[in-house]
Inverse folding.
């Protein structure tokens, strides 16, 4: 009876708008990071852009968390709403952290693996921006949503490969396992690991969406 009552009650729709806006912020942050790494413009300027977008996303996330407690009828499980908001916020937090490292180190020595990782992050961000609005009608879009989450997982696996290749090349360049690692190589390794952490965070969002799909279909 309770489930029937909930089904007949109007759902609070603003969560979908907030999630969609949050996903667009991720795209903006991912684009800015990639542009920053391409050497187009000033590092500090792009970092300020990323910080602004991350702050705007934080405000969205806070609104989601407050709305969970203030809304009587939510579109899906409250814990799933909170988890999705948190996981999306993690993506931009890590983009900002990566950009901060680049600025503080004045790092511009980007490798081919780093550029490939940045491209992969942008692809994941765009997939999320396309897929998240479909949560408004999960049964209607279940196949598209599953294809989206599967593609993000595939891209993250591609990122794992890029990370392994980058670490192997850095070891070779530094003289092998027994050779002392240079500051440059240590910094490069840190950057590729941060970029991979962004891809991991994107996959965490996809995994959360998969869990929501299972409960809703």
């Amino acid at each position: 009876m309770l489930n029937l009552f909930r089904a007949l009650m109007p759902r609070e729709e603003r969560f979908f708008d907030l999630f969609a806006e949050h996903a667009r912020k991720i795209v903006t942050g991912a684009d800015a990071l990639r542009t920053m790494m391409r050497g187009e413009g000033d590092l500090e300027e792009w970092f300020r852009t990323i910080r602004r977008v991350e702050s705007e996303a934080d405000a969205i996330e806070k609104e989601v968390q407050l709305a969970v407690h203030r809304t009587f009828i939510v579109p899906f499980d409250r814990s799933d709403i909170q988890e999705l908001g948190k996981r999306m916020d993690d993506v931009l937090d890590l983009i900002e952290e990566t950009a901060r490292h680049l600025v503080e180190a004045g790092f511009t020595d980007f490798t081919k693996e780093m550029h490939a990782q940045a491209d992969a992050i942008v692809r994941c961000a765009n997939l999320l921006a396309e897929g998240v609005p479909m949560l408004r009608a999960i049964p209607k879009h279940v196949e598209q949503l599953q294809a989206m989450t599967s593609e993000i997982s595939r891209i993250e696996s591609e990122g794992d490969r890029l990370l392994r290749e980058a670490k192997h090349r850095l070891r070779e360049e530094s003289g092998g396992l027994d050779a002392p690692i240079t500051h440059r190589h240590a910094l490069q390794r840190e950057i590729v690991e941060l970029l991979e952490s962004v891809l991991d965070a994107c996959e965490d969002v996809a995994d959360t969406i998969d869990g929501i799909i299972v409960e809703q279909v």
